[in-house]
Give the backbone structure.
Amino acid sequence: MMKTKTVLLILFVAVVIAAVYGYCLYTAKPPAASTLSADLTIDATVLYDEFKTNEVLSDKRYNDKLLKVNGQVRDVVDGAGGTTDVLLETGDPLGAVVCEFSAGQKVEFEKNAVVSIKGFCAGLNLDVLLQRCSTAE
Amino acid sequence: MKLSHHIIFASLLLLPACLHAQQRLASRNGEISLFAGTSLEDISAVNNKVTSVFLPSTGEIEFAALIKAFEFKRSLMQEHFNEDYLESNSFPKAIFKGKLVAATGDDLTRPGIHQVIAKGDLTLHGVTRQIEQKAQLTTSADGTAEARCDFEVKPEDYGVAIPSLVRDKIAERVQIKVRIHYTKF
């Protein structure tokens, strides 16, 4: 009898743990760059040039990766919904590496400053887009 | 296909000055939001990095949206959207190429609120289909404009298969809202 109770208790605890884990997984927000280490480090000009030269290959190489991008700030602009976009210089006036910082993040970059930013690469759409960015060390 | 898309897009952006009086309007921060939820699940996402070019004199319009740039509140939804449904590694962009045609014969270069029909080809998940939707174009005296269009898309029309296990959690028709603010380019 005691043994049955122990087994039932273990089963109950296991089910509760699985339910809590499942709930946490289900409700988790997309990860922010600030909490993770970069997969790759690259200069903004090189990243942009690679995408412009071979978008298909660059999609495979960089999309979904957490990139640490080094570059010079072309501009800092307000994005939609309280986000801030930091545009990094690429040498092409028609395109930039756009680093999107989430709403509520403090972004204090001066134009022309040389900076390092981490963000998740989403691909090229005139600009190369990095999302959920943070300042890198 | 990707190369041709960029060539067309660059051509629209860099259309030479010989096309006099053809003011070009462009946006890099257009917004497309989608709602695919049901009473069982709130499934919504927004992409506010949509690029678009519009020529008011001819009505030609094109926009492109990175599928990976749609942001969901939940990581798992974003993952399923990209990996299982839209397969964004294989089909990274949604593209619309077409025209805005004034519903009542308005001159779209004149400031005002114009009811228009957006006609053209929407490419999604590697499938291109002709669409024709009501839209609204607001043009201002300062040369800026705003396009708004609400429409619905049936995932199956674009080859997006929804497993029967989750069919009742995902709307049969996904509601799409497009809001693009154009400035002179």
